[in-house]
Every structure is written in C-alpha cells, then in structure tokens.
Amino acid sequence: MTLTLTPFAIEMLLRLVLILVIFHVLLIIVPFMVLWERKLLGFIQERPGPNRVGPWGILQTIVDGLKLFLKEDIRPASVDRTLHTLAPLMTVAPAILVLAIVPFADPVRITLDGGEFSLLGLTIQVAPVVLDLPIGITSLEVGILYYLAITGLAVYGIVLAGWASNSKYSLLGGIRSSAQMLSYEIALGLSLVGVLLIAGTFDLRAIIEQQDGGFWNWHVWKQPVGFLLFMVAGFAETNRLPFDLPEGESELGAGFHTEFSSMKFAMFFMAEYMNMFTFSAVLATLFLGGYTGPIASPFAELGWLNVAWGVFWLMAKIFLIVSFMIFIRGTLPRFRYDQLMDLGWKVMFPLALANMVLTAGVVAVFPPGNRWVTREEIIGQPSTVGLTLGLLVVGVAQIIIMDMILNARKRRLLANAR
C-alpha cells in the first residue's frame, strides 16, 4: 500500500505537530508558574516557600496537582449537573484559544527534497516541498479582534459556575466577576486603539515586525499610557490581586468555585495561570516587541537559530511580566468593590478615551503611512521621530494631568472626612 504526502499534507502535518508542542509546553509551564509564585511570595514575605518535595521544592506543584486529581469529585445534590461540569471547561477553553494568535518566532524555511520510505509495511512517498513555516498556531489578519472576542468569552464560565452551584455566595461571586470583567474589557479594548492607529493593522506578526531592529522601536515608547492601561486592565481580566474580588475568601467564602472540588476546582486555577501566561504574551507582543530582542537578531539568516533567539526573548519577557504580577500580589492589598468600579469607570475609561483621541491627533500630524495600510506595506516602514516624540509627550502629559486630578479628589475626600 502506498501513501503520497503532497506539499499541502506536509504543511498541515507540520502545523499539527507545532500545535501539539505549543499546547503541551503551556500545560508544562503552568505548574512551574505556580511554583515560581509561591517561591517569589516566600521571598517577599521572608520565608522559604515550598521546600519539601524534591530539590528546592521543585516537585511540590506536581504533587499538589496529583493530589487534586486523586480527590473525590463531590457534587452537591442541588447543583445543575450539566452546567456544573461545563463551567470549568468554559473557563479553561478561552485561555488556551487566545494562544493561537501569538507568534513565537520568525517563520523558518523548510526544504524537503522528496523521496520514499517504508513504515510498518506502508510505502510513503514524500513530494518535494519548500515552505515558510510560521512559529505559531496561526496568523490572523484580525488577530487583535480575535483576542478581544475570545477574552470576552471567559466571563461565561465564571457566571455559569456561580449559577450552576445553586449557592448564593457562588452566585454573588459570579455576578461580581461578570461586572468586573465587562467594566475593564472596555478599557482593555480602548487601550489598544493607539497601537492600531500607529500600526495600521490587526495582525500581531506585522505589529511585531514593525518593532524589530532594537528596543527603541517598541510601541511602549509611543504608547506609555496605553501600556499602563492594558497592564492594569489585564490584572482585572485575569482576576489577580488587587482585583481578585470574585475569589475573596474574607467576603464570599471563596467565591464562585465554592461548590467545586477535585480537578474541577483545579481547572479554575489552571485557567487563571494560563490567562496570566497568554495575557503576558499579548502584552509583550503589542508593546515590548514580541519575539524580537533588544537588539537586532544576529541569526536572521540562520533558520532554527533565529527561531531559538525569538522564542528565548518572548519567554524572557513573559517571565518578567508574570513575575511583576506576582510581585504586585505580594505588595498590594485587595481593592474594595467601590474602588474597583471607580478605577474602571472614572479613571481608566476616560483616560483610555483621551489617549485614543490624542493619539489620533498626533498620528494625523505625523502619519506613519497616511492611510490604513496592508500587512505587506506596513512591514519595515519606520515610524517618524516626530510621531514617537509626540506620542511620548502626550503620554507623559496625560499621566501628569490624571495624577493631579486624582490628588485633588483625594484631598477633597480627606477634607470632607474631617
């Protein structure tokens, strides 16, 4: 029996292998993110952290995961059985799907001369093929819209968890989470408009290639306010301190996951750490150059070495962002619910709108391309010095003005309290 592998079949096979590799790497990274959080929090609080299982406690989270896997799956009689099972899956799925649009490195050229070989009595004929394999699951022209759409789905799993539990505490936790995520979703989306105006594309790979050549080309210098807004909104979207009100043990008895146990309970926390990873990857991609290094790649023509260069820098940026999120957890207290909503609607939303309008004005004066351009036209097109300096000045001015407004409000509140 003979099987012929066409160029299309070979490309699909390579993409399938790449998808499996990325998915399994994410599953492997999550336990070590938990371990790193516990170790870093231990350092902040001047204690050793986990140090019992394995050398330096590196196997602790693996043992904890095995413990949760072996625990009994307790399902209270009053729960909605279908939704109770579906809710953890709907929480994990968006965290995985977002990773589909993240480019991990420059495409690598693969050349096969073709030939024939036998495997288990099957003759396989391989056609000659030359293809540029993107190091990522897919490359979408509407990548940012896809990101906003998928992250908006995450709230459904949490709301379903609260509803299916048939518990007033779980339901309150789910409602809080939905209100929080919807409030900050607006600021999250508006914070990206400045990058879109500068880049002229929704394609994440094209946005990365714009920032290539050195750290001075990164969008964080052109959009400092957008970067800060996206970072803060990301904390709220991932339910991390100081915005983890839906899980506030002191207020709701552990929030929306009160009635979950065993692996269902673990899946909510797995989704949280997956969301941290994917949020950090998108933040690094949009504002910090993605897989490009602080200097131009010395391996640009060396195929797999260039891939290793890109993967290293992207993972390094993700590691630093995740470490910063953990550091914030160890240093800031949880917000009150009124403070959470005030920040989202009275500070971040107006600031995001102002950033969008002012960025549009600066781009109109110093246009990077004068029009909405295609991916092929935008790649390699340098932004003008005037655009960068103008946006930087506008960003600093916005931060100073908002700080003055907040300080005036604080003084007014203190005066009223007296």
Strand order of the largest sheet: 1-4-3
Helix content: 55-70%
Q: Which segments are poorly predicted (pLDDT under 50) over 5 or more consecutive residues?
A: 370-382
Number of helices: 14
Number of domains: 1
Q: Give the tally of β-strands.
A: 5
Explain what the structure shows.
The chain has one domain. The protein has 14 helices and five strands. The protein has helices at residues 7-44, 60-70, 81-97, 143-164, 168-191, 193-199, 204-210, 224-237, 249-252, 262-287, 304-331, 337-365, 375-378, 385-417; strands spanning 2-5, 105-112, 115-119, 122-126, 129-135. A three-stranded mixed beta sheet has the order 1-4-3. The longest helix has 38 residues, at 7-44. It is globular. The N and C termini lie far apart (89 Å).
